[in-house]
Backbone:
């Protein structure tokens, strides 16, 4: 699995114009292939009168699912350049639909490739992206006396505290980069006089 990937900050639409043809690029985050397909279907319904609704999506942190459609444009001139732009930008869990309203001037294969790929690139620049990084999930168990200061130290130090549970002891769920685990164990031992228990868990992606 990659250490990090990028995805869209949120859903949005950006419009460009090339030789009187309008290109509307709609982007949306998609956690699953079904979400991507639902988004594409919604855009196609909204712009049923458009000349073309071409699309591409990438699902999986490792880009395991990649699909694209030219929707009637000449083969390889729309969906593929859209997909290539998403991959070039390391985008994952994202769906893109470029809606074209034909303006009367034919663009040729090269022009179409530039227009569709460019529409996606401009939309990403305008709508914004965010980086997701791979983290090691871990639990820290500590006595009540030290828990408040420890939680505060973690948060002020920029550590992600995902949950705090109070029982006989206090359990804090945290996320940190794998490379930081040895140094964190050392810091934790110093900060709690060796009384805290650290348990490494699985992995998850979080905002960098």
Residues:
């Amino acid at each position: 699995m990659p250490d990090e990937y990028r995805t869209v900050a949120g859903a949005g639409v950006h419009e460009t114009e090339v030789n009187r043809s309008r290109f509307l690029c709609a982007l949306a985050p998609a956690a699953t292939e079904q979400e991507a397909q639902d988004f594409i279907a919604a855009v196609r319904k909204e712009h049923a009168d458009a000349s073309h609704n071409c699309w591409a999506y990438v699902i999986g942190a490792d880009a395991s699912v990649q699909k694209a459609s030219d929707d009637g444009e000449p083969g390889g001139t729309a969906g593929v350049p859209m997909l290539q732009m998403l991959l070039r930008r390391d985008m994952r869990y994202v769906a893109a639909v470029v809606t074209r309203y034909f303006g009367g001037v034919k663009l040729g294969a090269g022009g179409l490739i530039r227009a569709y790929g460019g529409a996606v690139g401009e939309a990403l620049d305008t709508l914004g992206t965010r980086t997701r990084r791979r983290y090691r999930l871990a639990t820290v168990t500590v006595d009540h006396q030290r828990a408040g200061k420890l939680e505060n130290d973690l948060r002020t130090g920029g550590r992600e505290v995902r949950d705090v549970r109070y029982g006989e002891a206090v359990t804090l769920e945290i996320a940190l980069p794998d490379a930081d685990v040895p140094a964190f164990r050392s810091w934790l031992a110093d900060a709690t006089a060796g009384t805290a228990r650290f348990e490494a868990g699985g992995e998850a992606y979080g905002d960098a």
The chain has a mean pLDDT of 94.
